[in-house]
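USER: My hope is that you can spare some time for a protein that puzzles me. I am handing you a single protein, as its sequence and its fold in token form. Walk me, if you will, through where the backbone shape changes along the chain. The protein I mean follows directly.
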Amino acid sequence: MQVFQPAGAPDVIAQKLRRVVGALQWTALAYLLWVLWDILKPLRDPSAVLNWLGKLAHRPLSDVNAWQWGAYLLVDMLNWALMALAVAYCWRAMNEIKQVNGRGPLASRLLLIGAWLALATEVASISARPLKSYIMTCCDAGAAPLVHWFLHPQDLLATLLCLCLLSLAHVFSWKVYLTEENKGFI
């Protein structure tokens, strides 16, 4: 049975795919910049960050040293650099996917690396929280340093999103493998 396709249907689908992929790329870049803006909040308003951390520690944190701020920001910036690397790999994979014949092994490999880096970023971000609370409270006179680990509701959502991206990358890799294997039969 032959299915009717209007003239130019593959072109319309390719245009839609390019639009969706472009929107994903720009959304990822906007998110990356927003996270950087949020990370640099201690430089813009240190008192608000100290109030928030003081509430977590149940004590005032007014005597935080400059090296503590630097170490706190360094941990966040390392996580951000890992996220930027994940976005860069996914961006390159999306550029490959937008090409007419670009849905091949290179796009698959780039998407898979980007997905693993995204998951590593999320795990590193969650795992670094006790270190950050320790850094900010280790020089507090008369009080023991605080090692506080906590989860936010959005951590579960981000982890699920990373796992979905990883699953999609594996399915895409499998599709590429099957396509390459089937070329021998044609």
Summary: The mean pLDDT is 84. Helices lie at 9-39, 41-44, 46-57, 66-98, 105-127, 129-137, 153-182. The radius of gyration is 22 Å.
